[in-house]
TrEMBL record:
Organism: Acidovorax kalamii
GO MF term list: DNA-binding transcription factor activity; sequence-specific DNA binding
Domain HTH lysR-type, first and last residues per copy: 1-59
Protein name according to UniProt: LysR family transcriptional regulator
GO annotation (BP), single: DNA-templated transcription
Keyword terms, alphabetized: DNA-binding, Transcription, Transcription regulation
CDD domains linked to this entry: PBP2_CrgA_like
Gene3D superfamilies: 3.40.190.290, Winged helix-like DNA-binding domain superfamily/Winged helix DNA-binding domain
Similarity-based family: Belongs to the LysR transcriptional regulatory family.
Amino acid sequence: MKSLQDLDIFVRTVDSGSLSATARALDLTPAAASAALKRLEAELGVALFVRSTRSLRLTQEGALFLEHCRPALAALQQVQGQLAGGRAGGFRGTLQLAAPSDLGRNVLLPWLDAFQTEHPGIDIRLQLADRVANVYSEPVDAAFRYGKPQDSSLVALPLAADHRRVLCAAPAYLAAHGMPETPHALAAHEGLCFMLGEDVHDRWRFWDASGQEVVVRARSRNVANDGDVVRRWAVLGRGIAYKSYFDVADDLAAGRLVPLCPGWTTEAVPLFLVAPSRRQFTPLVHVLRDFVAGRLQALMERAPR
């Protein structure tokens, strides 16, 4: 389908910023790729790119077309794959995902490998960063995000609504410094804190059995803007961390980290799959969401109570 390939060339060119790179990826000549873009522009009656000898830049019309083209192309490619495969799960296309670094490296990576084994026609482009991905301007179909989005225009599918943080430390740290029995005792311990931008997350919230909130200011010599670094520091015995349970589930199961202050309720950090519009939630994204949500639920059943 030439028209479908033309749309694919357009989206790939936007993402790579290079028509020649798109041509190489699709095993086309640069002239054939350029002709595809010209056909699209002729059909639409507008210029999609401002071209120079060194760069391509979307026009205002091109940006508007991209907003609608990307989800439509993904849906069409998936249907095409199902028709060609002639079987359930015969998806084809590219999933562009963003996720926090810790969740991506330690939880999602093996699951995405398993997902591709079930759906071999799927390519995955994964962006890992602890900054919040801009799903409007970045080439992302959906983003894994902790906490319900403040932006009401975003669409969020719940993945783990009951997920919480866990206070934890390595056995070596506890042997050297003792185990805090309540959050109040944290003032005498080394905290390991995460930083987003210039905001250090050093105010840790807990609730006792009666529902009374306690806010503790963590004393932190070690602060990082990468959640996985905080986890690694904790495993090395450098201090106490207040981490999302998913990020440290394997460490807790293996005994590398120990949960602290049982009986206290920790902060809720629900996990969502986020996109700028419902059009982004193609059948493939829904299949991925169900795949991941099922595994997260199984992981939650091992969480400390």
